[in-house]
């Protein structure tokens, strides 16, 4: 599995991070660690003034520890390329993200990017969202709105669960001070419509459905190959 993650990250890095890439969005999760390894091992191929925009605390730390310059969107509101992991990717490149509760900032960074690329291992590859990722769609909610949002999500046919922290009593609290509700909607026939309906609920800050955003996805396979899906 680790090899598959590394293969996808290295293939995408070699293809999409060129000496012209000045501002790079760096996502979150375990696959993105390998992208930072790629950057570390290929410094001579990078723009001399490369600036990285991390999507959260984890990737920020990772980049700083490896000697890369990190900056905020205030300074660099347009990103050349953003690369990020995924929890599930369907045949049309709709993506579920937020398994690490980072999807709000990830979506902001992806939206600011001219090009958005996904890296993942083969477990994330599916035909329809909900096939592989059984944990549900991550939805970031302000704590004040938790109960009414949970009730509305049930009315919409979802099965919401408040994500609980491990090694801390109580719920997961995101980098933005909010809660995450994982909502099982079964197989998702129309991700864009589900995104629109869930995002419209008062108190929902962001939904971990990324529709019509990714241009290309790299999947590291069990046999050592890398499969590519393009929008
Ligand atoms: O919130 C977390 C992010 O959306 C991650 O990019 C996603 O969960 C994939 O993570 P991993 O590369 O660890 O599978």
From TrEMBL:
Q: Which domain of life is it from?
A: Eukaryota
Q: Cellular component per GO?
A: cytoplasm
Name the pathway: Carbohydrate degradation; pentose phosphate pathway; D-ribose 5-phosphate from D-ribulose 5-phosphate (non-oxidative stage): step 1/1
Name the UniProt key words of this record, in alphabetical order: Isomerase
The main enzyme category here is isomerase
This protein's record includes keyword Metal-binding: no
Question: Matching InterPro entries, A to Z?
Answer: NagB/RpiA_transferase-like, Ribose5P_isomerase_typA_subgr, Ribose5P_isomerase_type_A
- For the keyword DNA damage, the answer is no
**The reaction(s) this protein catalyses:** aldehydo-D-ribose 5-phosphate = D-ribulose 5-phosphate
EC number(s) from the headed UniProt entry: 5.3.1.6
Q: Set out the biological process GO terms recorded for this chain's protein.
A: D-ribose metabolic process; pentose-phosphate shunt, non-oxidative branch
Q: Which family does it belong to?
A: Belongs to the ribose 5-phosphate isomerase family.
Recorded protein name is: Ribose-5-phosphate isomerase
Which species is listed as the source?
Piptocephalis cylindrospora
